[in-house]
Amino acid sequence: MHILESHAVPWMRQWGSGLGFFGEEGMESCHKQFNALARSTTIIADKLKGIKILLERHLLMTVPHPTPRQKKL
Questions:
Q1: What's the pLDDT score for residue 49?
Q2: Cα–Cα distance for residue pair 9/46, rounded to 1 Å
Q3: What is the per-residue pLDDT for 7?
Q4: Which pLDDT score is estimated for 48?
């Protein structure tokens, strides 16, 4: 309860995301997207480059604005 009461709301405000993505259904959805992206990068000969591209694409799909919001002073 302490985490929900004291930390969840500030975290959601900072990152602009709810907690639903981090539950079981959110993770399964993420897994499905990740597998689809992995299939599209298998043709890249340099495996490290392929993994980097996969991670960048996944980040952009799940968090369109990957930087945290600036705190107001």
A1: 92
A2: 41
A3: 85
A4: 92
Check: CB of residue 68 under 8 Å from CB of residue 10. no
Name the amino acid, one letter, at 41.
T
- The structure tokens 């799940």 sit at 62
> What confidence score (pLDDT) does residue 44 get?
87
Q: Which two tokens stand for residue 32?
A: 């499905």
Radius of gyration of the chain (CA): 16
Residue 16 Rama label (left phi>0; alpha psi -120 to 50; beta): left
Residues of the chain where predicted confidence (pLDDT) is lower than 50? none
Residue with tokens 């959805």: 29
Cα 72 from chain centre: 24
